[in-house]
Specification:
CATH class of the largest domain in chain A: Alpha Beta
Strand content of chain A: 15-25%
Largest sheet of chain A: 7 strands, mixed
Largest interface: A-B, 35 and 29 residues
Order of helices and strands of chain B: EHEHEEEHHHHHEEHEEEEEEEHHH
Radius of gyration of chain B: 19 Å
Radius of gyration of chain A: 27 Å
Helix content of chain A: 25-40%
Number of helices of chain A: 19
Number of strands of chain B: 14
CATH architecture of the largest domain in chain A: 2-Layer Sandwich
Structural class of chain A: alpha+beta
Strand order of the largest sheet of chain A: 3-5-1-13-10-11-12
Number of domains of chain B: 3
Strand content of chain B: 15-25%
Largest sheet of chain B: 5 strands, antiparallel
Shape of chain B: globular
Number of strands of chain A: 30
CATH topology of the largest domain in chain A: Aldehyde Oxidoreductase, domain 4
CATH architecture of the largest domain in chain B: 2-Layer Sandwich
Oligomer: heterodimer
């Protein structure tokens, strides 16, 4: 990483575009991060949840006598406790036909998935709490469980939805049936994608403390969305929102899993209110995380695509089932995956005739929620499977067929068949660059050579995608929820010493937002990067931010930071002009010094302007208020599509099904890049998670709803040993927003399913319909028989 | 995932450890490297009253080759096994165990006593026709590999016995092949082939409750290559025999049919290696880059 050399006074070297030293690294890389689990408060007690071992059952009685008699145990809460009884999380949406359901903080009446919390034990430490949990005796009357979202339902998960259907919507453009009838070639695929989850290194964690004297709740939470959590807690707990403070300190990964407000979070706060002045801590362990944190990507796609003889994509129809699990995830609803699936399925391809019916189906499994890429790793797999099948049917080169159908710059703005508006058009530029960097010709030659020589086969896989990032109010994330996630705020404050503190609405789970926001503000304001400090994650400090999801923070938080920095710059220059009696339009602020344009020596330092603003009101010119800060909101209204292409060469061992990644190239359009190493890190991490989903990670339930992959011994995550060297390259078409950035958080996850499956088909001529692509599955495809 | 309550005893010598186990009346557990025991405790799937820590017992970490046999104390760590060159087969196999942190703590005796049928070291012990030394209240005894592994995660050791040392005969030629889902995972299928003079022992891991000796003790002659070099045809016949001989079950990572196919291929690879390098050094291609 480039070290930042000290810069001469008055010179401003832009921070944007350079790999400045990350502000958070000193603490994060030296073991001095401050996570929720590090928090120790006086007289703090520890909570463990008793979780249902059964997927679907009526709760008849819970006997807590033995638990309460356990040494060190203070209290045991159940769903019928007066503190819990009246509270439900209810994810709301105005979408027609959406069935609203309740999620209790602790199960009431029945349990709906194995792992649902039925009681909470409060003890002096976690060991004692777990001892106590063994003494909670629960009577379950089993009901028939539903595990698969496309199986015939038995006992409904929720009485409100007898068919388990929480939501269904049909996207329609043109006349797909007619266009299919006229197509020269029609391909059909039936695909399933594998349930898996985010698995951040730090699992969920919370500390709740209710101050009995002034009735204020403080909730330290490893959340991605502290302001949303504050609003939701205030509503659910009937507290004035100003008396709820949510603090997200350092957070060890989120990936969407921590953008959800969980029943455990609400239970913890309710228990804290019931036991005032006693801090309660719950730190989730990995077994709980695999069992009860949100899962994702458990989908089925039944697809048809019609092509003209020249390769033009004429029509796509899709029937989609998304397993939403036992509850409509709060606050995102059961619509989060199905609506994203239907809205983005067609990806970067031009298409006039489209009909897709998507469904969110409740089952007796852990709830599904947002996970990095939300539904699109599955839809890109689906769309690219159609492209690969189409290319085989048409005897066309798969890259040429894709190229034939890409949305091009001349088409921008392009209204997708789902009516989302694509502002990118950089797909072909990314594809050209990827083909060049990867060197398709060289790998095709190697493929032919190996075939000739009888050596191990290799295949080339391609995935092209559009990542919908930085969604504004017109394209807000989530299905017509009672809030619109289009905007964030940022406050830039010049302190009396002339240094700058930024109170940003962004949050960080390791992505380096402290650094990125400081870079944007340093450049917008005209100060050195090292003179900017960023605060975030505390609702008592920052005005407002929706937080981290849908690759929005560089776009929206960065936009707000840019606008706030510019606003304060204007204020500094106005005050400096008045103090020095110079026309403001002649002034410039660079490196913390105010200049008259064209002159070499500064007329006044920012530090002196700040001193006047705070400490020397006698020097304040007429019409100026004390203080030097500005707050701005930014909303991009629509959003910024980010184009991406991944191409890889994989070697397959037909005897064992073993797979070796030989080369993996990714080219993305991140627009204006604020910090190149952070951007590449985001892309690399996303590809690694994508490869995990494509080849390793699978949460498997048995027929009665027991999770059979309950530890990391069975739930396989890729390690450094499984992830190849990645070649990451860029094209740059700056977006129409204040920083020009396009989001990069999720794009990398979108292609690996398609790339791995495509490479397998290219190498061995077998189409894989079910993910993940495991050695056993490859072997079964080649040799027949079962894969497990 | 917090351990249930237990008491802790740090053993000063083997006799002290045996006494502590005897006092626990079946509710004691030896703590050596802890790589399997501690997760099991955290999941509360084991609830011993007493953990008897043998890590400070002197003399259990010795490692020496004598007269064609590697004599190893029970506390020898996987890293030490991987680093020694007196028994290149066990060095190669140890390199496949877990990751650096796991190899640094995990012990030879712990792995054998734990008796995981997909683990590397039990398969090596059986392929080498090795034996373990066990101390109990009535004195010491020697248990050979074929008698040690009783079932999945079940050894012949009584509750009050301590595995103290291992005899691992050094083969004249060997081959090792393993297929695992990721670097460091337990084997889906592993095969250890060892030749002692004109006797060939082929052991398959991951296909049964114990490391599976192909052909059983009686059938070894049928597999005997007759002392000459193993040709490809003979390797294929032996691989066929191995695949026919196993009776694997299906699980998350593969069907019975897949495991049988892997048994064939891993046997073929192990025997091909065995045939190719009768006197191969410890730094062969079998060494795995540590992860």
């Amino acid at each position: 990483m480039t070290a930042v050399e000290p810069q001469p006074v008055g010179e401003h070297r832009p921070a944007t575009g350079t790999a400045v030293r990350r502000k958070e690294d000193t603490r994060l890389l030296t073991g001095r991060g401050r996570y929720v689990s590090d928090l120790v408060l006086p007289r703090m007690r520890h909570v463990t949840f008793v979780r249902s071992p059964i997927a679907h059952a009526r709760l008849s009685a819970i006997d807590t006598t033995a638990a309460l008699a356990t040494e060190g145990v203070h209290t045991v809460f159940t769903g019928e406790h007066p503190a819990m009884r009246a509270v439900s999380l209810r994810a709301r949406s105005a979408l027609p036909g959406y069935v609203e359901t309740d999620q209790p903080p602790l199960a009431r009446g029945k349990v709906r998935f194995a792992g649902e919390a039925v009681a909470a034990v409060v003890a002096d430490d976690r060991y004692l709490a777990e001892d106590g949990a063994e003494g909670v005796d629960v009577d379950y009357e089993p009901l028939a469980p539903t595990v698969c979202a496309w199986a015939v339902p038995t006992d409904p998960v929720h009485d409100e939805a007898p068919d388990n259907l929480l939501l269904s919507r049909t996207f329609r453009a043109g006349d797909a049936a007619d266009a299919l009838a006229q197509a020269d070639v029609v391909v059909e695929r039936e695909l399933t994608t594998n349930r898996h989850g985010g698995n951040p290194i730090e699992c969920r964690a919370g500390v709740a403390r209710f101050d009995g004297a002034d009735r204020r709740l403080t909730f330290w939470s490893g959340t991605q969305v502290p302001h949303l959590v504050r609003t939701q807690l205030a509503e659910l707990l009937e507290l004035p929102e100003g008396d709820v403070r949510v603090i997200a300190p350092d957070v060890g990964g989120g990936f969407g899993v921590k953008s959800v407000l969980y029943p455990e979070d609400v239970a913890l706060c309710l228990m804290a209110i019931a036991t005032p002045d006693t801090a309660l801590k719950w730190v989730e362990d990995r077994v709980e995380h695999l069992l009860a944190a949100t899962h994702a990507r458990d989908h089925r796609y039944v697809l048809r695509a019609g092509f003209a003889a020249d390769g033009e994509l004429l029509a796509v129809t899709a029937d989609v089932w998304c397993n939403t699990g036992a509850y409509s995830v709060y606050p995102w609803t059961a619509g989060i995956e199905p609506l994203m699936a239907g809205g983005l399925l067609t990806g970067p391809y031009k298409l006039s005739h489209y009909e897709a019916t998507v469904r969110g189906v409740a089952t007796n499994t852990s709830p599904s929620g947002p996970y990095r890429g939300v539904a699109r790793p599955s839809t890109v797999f689906a769309m690219e499977a159609l492209m690969d099948s189409g290319a085989r049917a048409l005897r066309m080169d798969p890259i040429a067929l894709r190229r034939r159908n890409l949305i091009l710059p001349a088409d921008i703005p392009y209204k997708m068949p789902s009516r989302l508006v694509d502002d990118s058009g950089a797909y072909e530029a990314c594809l050209d660059r990827a083909v060049e960097v990867f060197d398709v010709e060289r790998w095709r030659a190697e493929q032919a050579r190996r075939r000739e020589a009888g050596e191990r086969p290799i295949g080339i896989g391609v995935g092209i995608y559009n990542e919908l990032t930085g969604l504004g109010r017109a394209a807000s994330a989530g299905p017509r929820m009672p809030f619109r996630t289009g905007h964030d705020a940022c406050t830039v404050r010049v302190n009396p010493d002339g240094r700058v503190t930024v109170f940003s609405g962004v949050t960080s789970q390791g992505q380096g937002l402290e650094t990125t926001m400081a870079q944007v503000v340093a450049d917008a304001l005209g100060v050195a990067y090292d003179d900017v400090t960023v605060r975030y994650g505390d609702t008592d400090e920052s005005l407002w931010g929706f937080g981290a999801f849908s690759s929005r923070q560089a776009v929206i938080g960065g936009g707000a930071a840019q606008l706030a920095g510019t606003d304060v710059r204007d204020k500094v220059l106005a005050l400096a002009g008045a103090l020095r009696e110079v026309d403001v339009s002649d002034l410039d602020l660079r490196g913390g010094q105010v200049y008259v344009r064209g002159q070499e020596k500064p007329v006044i330092a920012l530090a002196e302007v700040a001193r006047v603003a705070y400490l020397q009101s006698d020097r304040l010119p007429e019409g100026f208020e004390p203080g030097l800060e500005g707050t701005k909101f930014y909303d991009p209204v629509r959003g910024a599509f980010a184009a991406g292409v991944q191409i890889a060469a994989l070697e397959f061992d037909p005897v064992t099904g073993g797979t070796t990644i030989l080369s993996w190239v990714c080219v993305e359009d991140a627009g204006t890049i604020v910090h190149p190493v952070i951007v590449d890190g985001q892309i690399a991490g996303a590809i690694a998670q994508g490869i995990g989903g494509a080849m390793y990670e699978h949460l498997v339930y048995d027929d009665v709803g027991n999770l059979t992959t309950g530890t990391l011994l069975d739930y396989l995550m890729p390690t450094a040993g499984e992830i190849p060297e990645l070649t990451i390259d860029h094209v740059s078409t700056p977006a129409a927003n204040p920083t020009g950035a396009r989001g990069v958080g999720e794009g990398g996850t979108l292609a690996p399913n398609a790339v791995v499956a495509g490479a397998l088909a290219d190498a061995l001529g077998v189409e894989v319909d079910d993910l993940p692509v495991t050695p056993a599955r490859i072997w079964a495809l080649l040799h027949g028989g079962a894969d497990r | 995932m917090k351990c249930p309550p237990f008491s802790y005893h740090r053993a000063t010598d083997v006799a002290d450890a045996v006494a502590a186990l005897a006092d626990a009346d079946g509710e004691g557990k030896i703590l050596a490297g802890g790589q399997s025991l501690v997760p099991v405790l955290a999941l509360r799937r084991a609830r011993p009253d007493v953990l008897v820590d043998v890590n400070r017992v002197p003399g259990l970490a010795d490692l020496a080759g004598r007269e064609g046999v590697l004599h190893a104390g029970a506390l020898v760590r996987h890293t030490a096994l991987a680093a020694q060159d007196g028994h290149p087969l066990v060095a190669a196999a140890a390199g496949w165990i877990g990751h650096t942190a796991i190899r640094s703590r995990g012990t030879l005796g712990g792995s054998l006593a734990h008796a995981d049928p997909a683990a590397e070291l039990p398969a090596v012990l059986r392929a080498c026709a090795g034996a373990v030394h066990v101390a109990g209240p009535g004195g010491t005894r020697r248990v050979d590999a074929d008698g040690l592994f009783v079932g999945a995660l079940q050894s012949d050791l009584a509750d009050d016995e301590v595995l103290t040392g291992v005899e691992l005969p050094i083969p004249d030629a060997w081959g090792f092949a393993e297929f695992a889902r990721r670097h460091g995972d337990f084997a889906v299928v592993s095969v250890v082939a060892a030749r002692f003079g004109d006797r060939l022992r082929v052991v398959v891991g991951g296909v049964a409750g114990t490391p599976h000796l192909v052909g059983g003790e009686e059938a070894l002659d049928a597999l005997d290559p007759g002392g000459g070099p193993l040709g490809p045809d003979h390797v294929d016949r032996l691989a066929d025999a191995a695949a026919d001989d196993v009776d694997p079950v299906s699980d998350l990572h593969g069907s019975a049919g897949y495991r049988r196919a892997l048994t064939h291929e891993m046997t073929r690879r192990a025997l091909t290696d065995l045939a190719r390098a009768g006197d191969r050094s410890a730094t062969s291609s079998h060494r795995r880059e540590p992860v």
